[in-house]
Amino acid sequence: MTGQQIRETWLNFFKSKGHKIEPSASLIPVSDPTLLWINAGVAPLKKYFDGTEKTDHARITNVQKCIRTNDIDNVGRTARHHTFFEMLGNFSIGDYFKEDAIKYGFEILTSEKWFGFPLDKLYMTYYPDDTLAYETWVSCGVDPSHLIPLEGNFWEIGAGPSGPDTEIFFDRGEAYDKRGKELIEQDLENERFIEIWNIVFSQYNADPSIPRSQYKELPNKNIDTGAGLERFACVLQGTKTNFETDLFYPIILETEKLSHVKYEGQMAYKVIADHIKTLTFAISDGAVLSNEGRGYVLRRVLRRAVKYGRSIGLNEPFLYQLVDTVVEMMKDFYPNLVQTKEIVKKIVKKEEEKFFETISDGEKHLLSSIENNQLSGEAAFKLYDTYGFPIELTLEYAEENHITVDLEGFKQALEEQKMRSRNARTQNEGMKSQEEAYINFKEKSKFVGYNTLEVETKVIKVFPSGIVLEETPFYATMGGQVFDKGTINGLVVTNVTKLPNGQYLHEVEGEFNENDDVLAIVSKDTRNLVSSNHTATHLLHQAIKDTIGSHSHQQGSQVTKDLLRFDVNHFDKITEEDILAIEKIVNNHIKLKETVITKEMNINDAKKLGAQALFSEKYGDVVRVVNINGYSIELCGGTHVTNTSEIEQFAITSVESIGSGIYRFEGVTKNVEPLILNTLKNTLADINELIQKAKRLESQTYKFNEKTLPELIGSYKDILNYRNYLEELKNDVKNFEKEVSLKETQKILENASDFIPKDPKAKMVIKITKSMDMSTLKQLIDVIYDKIKADVLFVVHVDLDKATFIAKSNQNNAGTLIKLAASLTNGSGGGKPTLAQGGTKDLTNLENALLEVEKAL
């Protein structure tokens, strides 16, 4: 069976069992900051499993593309480690459970109609306490000697849904290992028994603070399974490793052509085949290569592949040439790869070229880090972590230069990094605990807020955290749009959230009882502002695609009454010209007064219409489509204006990179000028501070030439104009300071005699109270020192709340005098015997200190 036939067989089987086929989610997690990548079939479905959201389909099946890089060093070394892989899954959300899941598993694996695995080649593990799993496998016809109890067969990550699991292994026979099932029992690395499938029975709410035996049963029990497509292909195609299957081998053959080196199982070919799939799929889904987050992961993946390419003679960019092969292999199941192919090739080639330059820098760092013919583990890790040098590349260079590498030190530094990463994942990847009261509440509640902002209704449920209404005009926070402001019976609504079964929970400043009659009123002004910003967001999204490329996908958004925020991916710099062009496109559509039509329709009809499904989100069969005159067509449940003219005006107020190739746009609508001024408040404060600084320097002699502030035009151009004004003002004030300082210094030096005491005895200690900068003060001291021809001169300059001491001497006592003055005034200071400096902010004992300095002199 080909990889495509395996996918189709899996999906068709579970479709025949009432499962809805879900397309693969994007590799980039949606609204889930706990994950760097989608790394399992269940990851996009977590919200259904923990009960935070209700799905219309309790049975789901999918083929989910995944990325995992925690074992990247094993990729190519073993037969089955990958960074990119596809996980076959079937899921039950509060529907069928253990017995049915096992029976489905048995049927799809052993029936000739489906995969037809020989039963005597299958072995199953189970959790020792899970007698039902054992009995169900036996009832299906599995030989009890093929059932292995293992303590490790329990899935949990922190608090939340957890439960026992059963793993299914395929025995490839003694040709791969003479040992038997003890390989499974003792969890020994081997090539004989391949784990092809894991079925998790999610039935408990895990609580790390109590023993597992005390875990409570989940109100909704779930089934979560994951089977490796690549492992199925290896078994069904009879190959030695996953890499000789049709899911990798075409890439290996193409690499052979580029390298002119025959493939004979070399690790380099396997690494390249795996890594180019990872790069192609990740970049197609909107990821970019950078120095942080998932962008850093991809950069490491690419550099590792390039390193192994060098080992087979590929010493110039080559990975980008393999993208075509990946797309050709995978396009039947992932047709979007065809549209993104050229941009992927461009990004990969650009990054390869950059890395070949980096290799040169890394070589220099390596050579400069050698001490006593050895490279420390810390230096080797820096090469790995900073310069992207795989340790093999470092060892290669070390051998060429006849030096040794502290490999143990490197491994320790690497393990410490992995431990930090694992700890972060352990803390974050778990699902939330199910809220039983919310899950069990199924009474109908209707949202009527698209058509009205005011409704007389009644309270149908009171929770400790809020109330549910029979009908509600309040929009709940979701899809990036904030909840509606307003009142219920005159009491302020402070939050509105969506419950798992679709009802809206209202948090209100007051108490209610069930069956209370209430009047719910949404603030019209707030709703209009939010709707205006939301429709502008849709226009902005399409304008961004039109300007910087269709590869730019939404990575997040937030819509409030005050502003709209929109995140997109982009592999290159977004220029000021791009930003102004995007803003202009949006305003043109506002001026055209285009009709905004919202309509519910079948999801397939929406896709035919060209509607964009944002975030690669999961949608039901019936979706709401927002169509702005055919220019922007998106699936969206938010509130919108009915005509673009209601937006009035649009201005971008900020565009910044927020890391990993993600850019954040912020903008405003309607009366934009005061909103732009609010955005500019920090810039205006800086401008005012500079002007006040210049004013303080002004006198009858010196006047600062203050330029007029730019006039607001209600555009991102205002942001640029004010920034430019600020930069020019900085230069103007700096030049004015120099001008005043230069002339003041000249005037002070010309009148240096005015600072010399008339009393000859006091000449050696001088107190100056005229404000001047340090440069002028030092020049003045030199002039005075020369004029009075003293052996020693001690000067104190008092300015506002501080004093500066400077001593000049040909008697080698300057430092002594400064330390004396400093010690008497809680100050500090020091310097050379001939010239020293100090100071204090405590002026209470200053006069006494000067008398002591005079005595010392």
Automatic annotation (TrEMBL):
It comes from the Bacteria. One of its GO terms (molecular function) is ATP binding. Binds 1 zinc ion per subunit. It catalyses: tRNA(Ala) + L-alanine + ATP = L-alanyl-tRNA(Ala) + AMP + diphosphate. Its main location: cytoplasm. The keyword ATP-binding applies. Residues 1-669 form the Alanyl-transfer RNA synthetases family profile domain. It is found in: Cytoplasm. Residues 407-434, 677-746 form a coiled coil. Transmembrane segments: none annotated. Its cofactor is Zn(2+). Belongs to the class-II aminoacyl-tRNA synthetase family. Consists of three domains; the N-terminal catalytic domain, the editing domain and the C-terminal C-Ala domain. The editing domain removes incorrectly charged amino acids, while the C-Ala domain, along with tRNA(Ala), serves as a bridge to cooperatively bring together the editing and aminoacylation centers thus stimulating deacylation of misacylated tRNAs. HAMAP family: Ala_tRNA_synth_B. This is Alanine--tRNA ligase. It comes from Alteracholeplasma palmae (strain ATCC 49389 / J233). The lineage of its organism: Bacteria, Bacillati, Mycoplasmatota, Mollicutes, Acholeplasmatales.
